[in-house]
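User: We ran a pulldown and think these components assemble together. Before we commit to crystallization trials, I'd like a predicted model of the whole complex to look at. Sequences follow.
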Amino acid sequence: MNDGFAVRVKNLTKHYGQVVAVDHISFEVKKGELFGFLGPNGAGKTTTIRMLIGVIRKDHGEASVMGYPAGSLRAKQLSGVVPEMANAYIDLSGWDNLMLMAELYRTPSTDAKKRAEALLQELGLYERKDSKTSTYSMGMRKRLLLAMALINDPQILFLDEPTSGLDVQSARSIRAMLRNLKKEGKTIMLTTHNMDEAAELSDRVAIINHGKLAAVDTPDNLSITGGRVYLIDLSFDKPVRSEVLAKLPGVSRLETAQAIEAADRLRAQMAMAGAGRPGGMGGGKGQMQGQPAGGMSPLAGTGTAEKPDSSRFRLYTENTTLLVTALVDFSRANSLTMNILNVRSPSLEDAFVRLTEEKSHEE
Amino acid sequence: MKSSFGIIDQTIRSFTIARKSIRIFYAKGPVVIFGLLFPIFLFLSFSIGRNMTLDFMMPGFLGMILFFTATSISPVVVPWEAQARTLERLMSCPVRLETIIMGDVLASFVFGTAISLVPIIIGLALGITISSPVLFALAVILAAICFASLGNVFSIPPSNVPATVNMIAAAVRFPVIFISGIFIPLDELPTWGQAISYISPLTYFTDIARNSIQGQSHLPLFVDFLALLGFTVLFLVVAMKMHQRTMPRRI
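Assistant: Here's a predicted model for the assembly, 614 residues in total across the polymer chains.
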């Protein structure tokens, strides 16, 4: 059964004791597609990948890779794998690790040597090929793992967070390699916590949460349909009462500078270390829904610890035209100058947060 | 790219795994030195002061060296790989679990056999004679595979801490030394002692070695060989079945 799909998954399920790690998920990955597989920590991404590469057994459902049952020797022979948290053999050199993998995949020696040289050159490891990998940095080891996954010239790649925790150069090197592989027509299934990376590289993404698929679509479609809410970052020349601003027509939620910084910190942590859900769209300190502000002055002067005055805000709206017009009128009426007015489209990250939060709330 | 995935294909891949294991886990100075020294000192501690001839000492000494070396590293290879985070990558290669286990057993077999050659050569230099070298060589090979398989059985519990697995292995390895006719010939043991000795695979190798070097054995040779073969099959089957259950829990 080899029908244009590189991966077919139907009702795939895995339990760990009473915990349902993967709960009847179904999806397909087309041949030549780069398929992003996203989800918060513990959502079931790695368990799904492990079932597909044959490291753990499924409890229920069906899964095939390149037309063969997932985990079968034929499926494994056609696959390249970079498991999450995997390591190369640190007592072997980079070159010897590659040759070991080539032998395990029974790649002919001459082909293996040519490919190894090319891969090490492309990933910037050639100069250190004879050094033991115990002397490699984390970024170098990750790049070596990618080379090990490619030594057998696989038709499909399973990459479980290949850029997680890497320095900028190593992450860029791996992303560049993935782009090239995509151009070559390789099928790639990629898990990542980096939403920008997923949006940039993926043809389609699946979002898994609590073991269930929340959505499968292109990053653009998910951003639009999943996001819906636009973000407006603005800064005034003077502090403004947030409760007055929240009352403007079209404001569905408001964040003060404090909340924005906290959310940005969370987003940065998530990008760096895969820390799960970013902040920013949930309720919390420094956030408020639109509500009447009585007859108080819009300008600051009586701010409290609970309702701090601020000159910098992030507004969420489903109607940008209405809100931008209201903001201009508000500024004129109060002799304020807007130093920054930045309208941002919903991103994949916004969609991700929305979809994973929606699921959490439903449960 | 080969894609038959038959027995020959998987055997070739298991040799690759064995070479990898020998290089990474066995071919280390301290491991080789420990493999030789530990049985020597253990044996000396029990033989010094006792009136033993070289012909009597040699079979037991060989049995101990072979048993200790073939079971020394194999119990901790899988936990080491899991701890070093190389096991998942290995399991995702086109190899059966049985192939991984056979690779580890082969590595342990090579190590045990190679180390055992040292006392054999020393013994020959000191004047011992081996009456049937071919049978003796076969016994060394079969026993090395048997002990290596037993070593792999020790690694079944899904602990990724090598020290824990070593404790389990030690708890079995040391008692086995004392019930296998190494220090006291089987003929001199009481009936209940002989009955206990039959549950140890080392008993049968020591018996074959005594036949080859001393010219006398407690059991007929074919019984010794059949018993070693039976234990080998048993250990391999248990290792392969049980690792199927526990291996995925390591990652």
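The interface with chain A takes residues 1-3, 5, 9, 12-13, 16-17, 20, 23-24, 84-86, 88-96, 248, 251 of chain B (CB under 8 Å). That may be worth checking against your pulldown data before setting up trials.

User: Thanks, that helps.
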